Amino acid sequence: MVSHLLLPDVTDAPLCSVFTKSLGVRPAGTGLSLDRVVVVAMATPWPKPAVGAPHVKAATAALARSAIASRLFTAEPWSGEYGVELYERDGLGFAAYRWPAETAEDVTQVVERIAGAAHGAHGMAPIEVSVPTFLVCTQGSHDRCCGDMGVALAAQIEAERPNYRLRRVSHTGGHRFAPTFLALPSGRMWAYADLALVDRVAANSVTVDDLRMYCRGWLGAPTGFAQVAELAARIEAGNPFLTAPLLSVDAQGDMAHCQVSVDGVTTHVGVRRGREVPTIACASPGGQPVKIAREFEWNVGGTERATME
After folding, report:
1. Is 266 left (phi over 0), alpha (psi -120 to 50) or beta?
2. Residue 140 has pLDDT above 50, yes or no
3. pTM higher than 0.85, yes or no?
4. How many whole angstroms separate alpha carbon 148 and alpha carbon 209?
5. How many CA atoms lie within 13 A of 200 on its CB side?
6. What are the helix (H) ranges across the chain?
């Protein structure tokens, strides 16, 4: 049971992200686990959920049938009324693809082709992403924090960092950590974001504290234990990985022993579900209704370096 001391006063109606950050909740392990991210242009306002809109409903259904872990996000149009972008995992990072579309039917056809294809078999060569790309959650119809804080961050990026590629997208989950964004081509998700964090991610110069306090996880790792272990190994390494990690998870109840093997080093990580923290309803008196979440904790037990025979 969560202590009443952690809950907002009944006379308060705090924003969920402000409240979560005030508790020092770490977002590790809450990122999505995906091999494909599909972004489809769609004019606002978006319904809740945005993927239920007539424009993309058929495309979303096609993608749901894919054998490859995929997720569709709507985005405010970036060039014309329609368009489709695909970010597909290629080892450690993500390759980018883009298709023009003139009608909603074109969008569905493109997404159906993506959904039915194996990796890299959708009939288009990768587009080199020469600038950092950020998918910022700005869907105010889903949550006020995303609508206020996400929109403000997106506007600041547009105004002050025109050399970055920005997509204002539908809900990516984790609104209690707003502003949130997905960085590409790294495929890493971030919480409690500001422009300084965006710049460090763009320059590939994030700090250990950034990873510990603001990183939700890497798309290439399963949500939960494995995502936390990958993050812990990344923190332990101190430097960016050069290749995609191999993950092994032995979970028993609320605890797991994990191994992360990457760049010739295997890191042993113990992960467990730790303190209970409240997830409040945004801007609601007393934060009600309140849901209970568990924050992950981890301990690095040691590393082994592979030797050549």
Report:
1. beta
2. yes
3. yes
4. 26
5. 16
6. 16-22, 54-64, 104-115, 144-145, 151-160, 195-202, 208-214, 225-237
